[in-house]
Amino acid sequence: MRQLDVRRLGTVSYADALTLQRELVEERRAARIPDTLLLLEHPHVITLGVKARGNLSNVVVPPETLAARGVELFDTGRGGDVTYHGPGQLVGYPIIDLRPDRCDVHRYVRDLEDVLIRVAADYGFTATRVPGFSGAWVLDEKLAAIGVRISRWITSHGFALNVNTDLSHFDLIVPCGIADKGVTSLARLQGRPVSMADVMTHTARRFAEVFDAEASEPSEAPEAPGALETPAMAEVASAIPGPSQIGR
Length: 248
Description:
Layout: E1 2-11, H1 14-29, E2 35-41, E3 45-48, H2 63-68, E4 72-75, E5 82-85, E6 89-95, H3 105-122, E7 128-130, E8 133-138, E9 141-151, E10 154-162, E11 182-183, H4 186-190, H5 196-210, E12 213-215
Parallel strand pairs: 1-2, 1-12, 3-4, 9-11
Antiparallel strand pairs: 2-6, 3-5, 6-10, 7-8, 8-9, 9-10
Helix pairs in contact: 3-5
């Protein structure tokens, strides 16, 4: 069974999270650390995937509006288009080695979707896949997005789950370049705030379950989903054997 080191990091700037991921990827490649799952939140940031490079058409407000609202604009190494991250969104960055038996990019994305679908079920909601798009969906609204990078089978970037996110921030963009679908959150579906700490616990447990791993923390999921706090989006990028991108 794989060993999984779960790290709850609180709120981390997007730039610092990128730096940490790069360091951990090299540590994992050298087998100095086990598979690792980072769970965190970001301050307000709009991130651009490879589809958005040189094309900001899916950012629908000018830079001065973003600055006035305290929203950073950041280019990334993941696939996909444009998305928003911010307070109340659970972001997960798996730094795991897919070798020897999970070297399948599409399987990895489906497995991440499975994790998110199971977390939604823990809260009593049926999330599904939507053909042609990544992530976890409740009807035609995106509850969670996936955006990964895989380099020589070591993963980085990851997923984002809308927990208590202020969904109005998605009005600043065309989320993932998908104009005809909406976004939702666990808090919106439940009709009240949801405990971020509890969602992290459920997510760590479900991740370990799907990836056949033994998590170092937390050891037990809470008995029932709790309440309090403020979820999200991501997209998909991957690489065989070097970095490349997949995303919607």
